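Box 3.1 A note on notation
Throughout this textbook, protein chains are presented in two layers. The first layer is the amino acid sequence; the second is a token string describing backbone geometry. Keep the layers aligned when reading.
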Amino acid sequence: MNISDYPVLAWRVFFVAAALEVGGDAVARMGLRGNRCTVVGGGCLMLAAYGLVVDMVTWDFSKLLGVYVAIFAVVSILAGRFAFHEEIAVSTWIGLSVVVLGGLIIQFGGVVER
């Protein structure tokens, strides 16, 4: 089965990759702030795993990362709000809407003939 042939499955892969990227950054940050090298290493492993997972989708690079950025933005802001209890500004929610709209345009826009 080729994940790239199933856009809904590809978006699910992107959510897993985004969770690894956001989580890896959070873990590495905790390790750096706590001066704990093993925790930093764990965060780095999670970030490496994100790179492997996101590339399971074999779309063109620009489409792959264009759509992934939208998913990453959603996961990042939701993590900030719910995991780190940050207050999110209205302007950030508006900006997120623009990014998601861009991801949808990239996903469902036309294909360039080669």
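The chain has a mean pLDDT of 92. The two ends are 25 Å apart (CA to CA).
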